[in-house]
Amino acid sequence: MRRSALVGSMLFALLQATSARAEHPGKSEIEKSGYAGPSTCERCHPGKAKEFLGTVHWKHASRVDNVEHLDPKAEYGMKNRIYTMCNGNDVVNDLKETPKNAAGKSKFTGCNTCHPGNHLSDVGSTGPEAEAAVDCLVCHSTDYDFRQRKPHLDDRGRVVMGQDRSTKAALSIGKPTVKNCMTCHEAAGGGVLVKRGFAFNKDTDAHAAKGMVCVDCHAAKNHKMPTGYDPNNWANDGVRLSCAGCHGEKPHKLAAYNDHTARIACQTCHIPRTGGAVAKDFTVWERGADGYYEPTTLKKEANETAPVYAWYDKTVRNEPHFIGPHGSRKDGKSKLYPFKIYMGKAFYDRKTGQLLSMDFAPPMATGDTRAGVESAARTLGMKNPAQVAKDAVPGWQTIYFGSDHLVTRSKALNCINCHGVNGVLDFKALGYSHAEARKLTNPEIYFKQLVQQQKEEW
Amino acid sequence: MKKPASIMLVVARMLVVALMLVGIAGKASAAETKMVGVITQIEISGKDAKVATATLKDNKTGEAVVITVQDDLTLDKFKDHRIVEGDEIRCKYEAKDGKNVSTYFRKTAGC
């Protein structure tokens, strides 16, 4: 049953891959009348623009029920979070022009640059004007001209994000491709593959190699995107996904492997590498050749770094210096997961010990990071922003990112990778006694199994 | 008489090995060059183009370097203008048949 479901889903994915770009109905109508934005889409898809305004992609926030120290009635996400991968957020680092730099130049910058509106209708906005501002094509067209999607000042001096609303772009619509998703998601956190550290292509991911696209797993219904439980990805549309949804709880031929699935997450063996930024310093920005400053960042390629392993019960420790998994070996509900570990340095409030956020515009122009803290403190209505910035204390925060991509079958961890004496798992740190750790790293556990496998292979 | 000869032989062998190592090192560094620079020009012929050239102004030297781009992902970014003139690029390239062929071509900026 499980196998047939898997085959079915793979066939579905292949059909999707081949038919996703099949001609979208209504082409002649669009050719005749042109594309006027969401109102054109709504002729056949009524209510979709309004529906979209209720999603994380538009709100950049949602209620969060699995992270400690949060108000259950409030919404959290890129809109307002303060952490050290993106020390700014949509509120304090709203899209705007920087002050002039030493060369007398300024440029547009802001966390909400990727928001699929026009900035006049921005993160979390509602109503008819917001519905009309949705950029359907940036996610649904494969022929989008990104020269159009640039910020500019309108005749009233307001910052507007442009959109490609050409008939040409509208004629190549369909389900989002990998390119559509990665347009925003690959450059998050300050550069290509910086934040999540994965590339989704045939060389780096088993699903991509099968021709699958992002929305085959993140299969949206009513624009609500299913997501996993990345400890650092808080906002969600209330729909979750897991490997077992397609692969079942016992996906292996070998019973010994299936015996692991109750306590070991699929990702632990099947995502043995990670990548992206290792560390970033928001307190000291580096001047680039263009005369603007950027946070000092240590970057690594996809598959270039090793994950850390920890028990995770899908609830999140949220402290000023740590964001990561709750869980233990003995709670009966945690599984062992791999995480991309990252450390970010930023300013903390001397009085409260809480992490402060930063408006990037001032340091981008001058390198003055405390000016960025002051601007953010002012935006957030903190008392005496200048003093807050002056007294701010640099400190490091550790973040565990979920490691849910870069899936491999052929390079998955095997028995020896974990149970060898020099294996990737530190059993003692994971809560096992010395005696248990010795037993778990003794060849007795895997010897017969692997000898048999060796015979079959050769 | 025998001892000096063997010493000379050892020295000669060491010299050969050293020269080989220098050669290998030289070849390795020549094989792949890294640079960061701003795109001053992109030349690509049409939607179906399988190759493009981008001229980068090297941030360190100020020299213009013409890069040949062949990978589909970067070509696609040229075609839909996700990468445009004025963007700063982190690039690795190899010299092949008189061309600087890109092996890594990414915008330095993100959000």
The average pLDDT of chain A is: 94
Give the largest interface pair and sizes.
Answer: A-B, 24 and 17 residues
Give the biggest beta sheet of chain B.
5 strands, mixed, barrel
Number of helices of chain B: 2
Radius of gyration computed on alpha carbons of chain B: 21 Å
- Fraction of residues in H or I helices of chain A: 25-40%
Secondary-structure arrangement, i.e. CATH architecture of the largest domain in chain B: Beta Barrel
Strand content of chain B: 35-45%
Describe it for me?
The complex is a heterodimer of chains A (458) and B (111). With 458 residues, chain A is an alpha+beta fold. Chain A has one domain (2-413). Chain A is 28% helix and 14% strand. Chain A is built from 20 helices and 13 strands. In chain A, strand 10 and strand 11 (322-325) form a beta hairpin. In chain A, helix 16 runs antiparallel to helix 17 (385-391). Mean pLDDT of chain A is 94; it is low at 11-15. In chain B, strands 1-2-3-5-4 form a five-stranded mixed beta barrel. In chain B, strand 2 and strand 3 (64-69) form a beta hairpin. The A-B interface holds A 110-111, 113-114, 143-147, 179, 183-184, 187-192, 194, 201, 288-290, 294 and B 36-38, 59, 73, 76, 80-82, 84, 88, 106-111.
Give a summary of the structure in a few sentences.
Chain A is α+β, with helices and mostly antiparallel strands and 458 residues long. Chain A has helices at residues 2-19, 27-33, 38-42, 48-52, 56-59, 128-133, 136-140, 167-170, 178-185, 206-209, 214-217, 244-247, 255-258, 266-270, 361-366, 369-379, 385-391, 415-419, 434-440, 447-457; strands at 62-63, 75-76, 96-97, 108-109, 151-153, 159-161, 279-287, 293-298, 308-312, 316-319, 322-325, 335-348, 393-402. In chain B, a hairpin with a 5-residue loop joins β2 (52-58) and β3 (64-69).
